Amino acid sequence: MCFDSEVLENFLDAPYDPLPEFEGPPNYQLHRRGRGKDHPRYGRFVYALARHYQPERIVEIGTFAGGTAVGFGRALTENGAGQLICVDQDSYSRGTFPEVAQRNLERVGVPESQFRLCCGDSKQWLPKLGREFPGQIDLLLVDGDHTYEGALADLRNSLPLMRPGGLVLVHDVDRRRRMDEATDEHPHPVYEAFHAVAAEHQLDWCILKFIRKHLGVLRTPEQACKSIRLAA
Questions:
Q1: In whole angstroms, what is the distance from residue 122 CA to residue 200 CA?
Q2: Would strands 83-88 and 115-119 be described as parallel, antiparallel, or unpaired?
Q3: Torsions phi, psi for 221 (to 5 deg)
Q4: Bridge partner list, 204
Q5: What is the C-alpha to C-alpha distance for residues 218 and 45, in angstroms, rounded to an integer?
């Protein structure tokens, strides 16, 4: 699959950092990954994507402190419309989500009416959101549970939410980096889950290697995904 050429143009024209005053987790000085080495380039890319596609609704699984949420949020604010729904269970660094993420979204100028923060397990939240917004999500980012089973469930549970032709972004689709969640059976868990779902539903896909740890993209079919069932 290919993106519209305007996406790259928007990326090149985008602010280098969607939020220079970004706040990391409570132990930010010790925990440098709170902002993420992907940010601001990662946040800059999703900003460009949302500016181009003008989505009505975005869902993000695995928000943490909001490194990508501020990119999405800034785009929606500048678009003048759209809602961002973030899901995280605050397991990586306690006290970060939703408190720090909310402050970062407010810093980037996103009004409360344009974002919603959902605390809990994505395997519970995605089916709820699927019932609330069936076939109504334009962009969805999966960056939560990095086990094979967890990533597979998030991907499968995401599809019923998607509008025809919507984009599912998947972080950490990288075979060169051994992840903590790797097992002998699944040495590249997110990469394997990504390709399993792409093959299972015959989805168009690509992998953007200029985003650190690689960003996979799945395009949902032009026809509605009503026949796709939620994963258990």
A1: 21
A2: parallel
A3: -60, 155
A4: 219
A5: 16
pLDDT beyond 80 at 219:
yes
Separation of alpha carbons 205 and 217, rounded Å: 5
What letter represents residue 83's amino acid?
A: Q
C-alpha pair distances (Å), 191 with each of 48, 152, 203: 24, 10, 15
pLDDT digits (tens, 9 = 90+) for 28-60: 655 555 555 556 889 999 999 999 999 999 999
- Using the 8-state DSSP alphabet, how is residue 229 labeled? P
Local structure of residue 144 (DSSP, 8 states) = S
What domains does the chain contain, in order, with CATH numbers?
A: 5-219 (3.40.50.150)
CA 102 to the chain's CA centroid: 16
Strands 215-219 and 204-208: antiparallel
What are the backbone angles phi and psi of residue 13, rounded to the nearest 5°?
-85, -10
β-strand partners of 40 = none
Structure tokens at 69: 């949420």
The token pair that represents 79 in the structure block: 């678009």
Q: How far is CA 50 from CA 70, 131, 138, in A?
A: 11, 24, 9
